[in-house]
Amino acid sequence: MNTRGLRSQLKDSVPVTGLCPQAGPYGVQDSLRRGFSSVKNELLPSHPLELSEKNFQLNQDKMNFNTLRNIQGLHAPLKLQMEYRAARQIQRLPFLPSSNLALDTLRGADDTIGFEDILNDPIQSEMMGDPHIMTEYKLGVL
Amino acid sequence: MATVSVCQYHRGGFSFENCKRNALLEADINKLGLSSPAARKTGTTICGLVYKDGVVLGADTRATEGMVVADKNCSKIHYISPNVYCCGAGTAADTEMTTQIISSNLELHSLSTGRPPRVATANRMLKQMLFRYQGYIGAALVLGGVDCNGPHLYSIYPHGSTDKLPYVTMGSGSLAAMAVFEDRYRPNMEEEEAKRLVRDAIAAGIFNDLGSGSNIDLCVITKGKVDYLRPHDMANKKGVRTGNYRYKHGTTGVLTKTVTPLNLEVVEESVQTMDTS
């Protein structure tokens, strides 16, 4: 839940640079894996909310950690971030959905319902990623 | 193979993939001189007021889709929790989904705290969600209820600003309804007088605004009980047909009658069994 004021924390929000970095491992457009690129696609968001929604969770976390640091000192966000990092590693195979239960409980999102639970539920998606490709991407051999 | 989504598991929530395509389609359609379909709105009159024992919420029941009435008797007073109800104006789908999400969140929150929910909690949840989406969720709401601190009434605008007031109106007919409120509102009214005032305010919106019409729904919330009066007043009943253009039997006289039997013979007969197991 966003419980803190925004103004003092604006300097910490994620800056707007580009939308989706199309550069592959060698620094140029990776046509094979990411398709054709166009300058317009990369510079302008297709919807004013697209950027803010993509970074929403990140900005919330930054704001919360900053307020926590101001109130309780540096140790509080450090410990919490360590726990987040540990919880984020509890995943299934790359192509299977994981519930992220520990991460949700830490964030306090285990007893809230938002649009990400109702719209576009990944569990009910008609398409599935190819298991081989996704595992190779995760391991970095793709 | 050539998409990012192939490599990473995709997240839920709003997807902006089709926005560019929609913008292109919109431009093309406008070039042809046509217009794309409009979302169903509830150009509406909703209002609420605080009286001696609680809160009275009122709403009309017309939902419009452009210049056509889409629903003659839609329900605009949504349930949030046993002691909190919310009227919604604006895009019908937005108000419906927003109030349902907030109702679920409030229930989870009250189970987690172990206390009955408060109106201020619902207000804060709604304003934070609406501000997050910067007004793109077109939901203008009147939120009212009675909790441990007494009766409360809030009005919530689509961009996320809220007002806590003793009487509020929203929607396209809000000016007509507010005129009635400003004339006759007094603090600490009795229940009957409050119901009559809300009914008159909604009626003013219904008869003076094209976007509002049909019946008047009321919701009276007090400390122990909720009266959901739907419909409280059918201000616009469809008329009963007074005449009939049908001709009675025997109106037209029969001059002659000839009967011609058709001799049909069976050419072929085949039987197809159905699998009814």
Automatic annotation (TrEMBL), chain A:
This is Proteasome maturation protein-like. Keywords: Chaperone. PANTHER family: PROTEASOME MATURATION PROTEIN, PROTEASOME MATURATION PROTEIN UMP1. GO terms for biological process: proteasome assembly. Coiled coil: none annotated. Signal peptide: none annotated. Belongs to the POMP/UMP1 family. The gene is LOC113063985. One of its GO terms (cellular component) is cytoplasm.
TrEMBL record, chain B:
Keywords: Cytoplasm, Hydrolase, Nucleus, Protease, Proteasome, Threonine protease. It catalyses: Cleavage of peptide bonds with very broad specificity. InterPro entries: Ntn_hydrolases_N, Pept_T1A_subB, Proteasome_bsu_C, Proteasome_bsu_CS, Proteasome_sua/b, Proteasome_suB-type. GO terms for biological process: proteolysis involved in protein catabolic process. PROSITE patterns: PROTEASOME_BETA_1, PROTEASOME_BETA_2. Its main location: cytoplasm. The keyword Transmembrane helix does not apply. It holds the Pfam family Pr_beta_C. The active site is at T44. GO terms for cellular component: cytoplasm; nucleus; proteasome core complex. It is found in: Cytoplasm; Nucleus. One of its GO terms (molecular function) is threonine-type endopeptidase activity. Residues 235-271 form the Proteasome beta subunit C-terminal domain. Component of the proteasome complex. Belongs to the peptidase T1B family. The proteasome is a multicatalytic proteinase complex which is characterized by its ability to cleave peptides with Arg, Phe, Tyr, Leu, and Glu adjacent to the leaving group at neutral or slightly basic pH. The proteasome has an ATP-dependent proteolytic activity. This subunit is involved in antigen processing to generate class I binding peptides. Component of the proteasome, a multicatalytic proteinase complex which is characterized by its ability to cleave peptides with Arg, Phe, Tyr, Leu, and Glu adjacent to the leaving group at neutral or slightly basic pH. The proteasome has an ATP-dependent proteolytic activity. This is Proteasome subunit beta. The gene is LOC113064381.
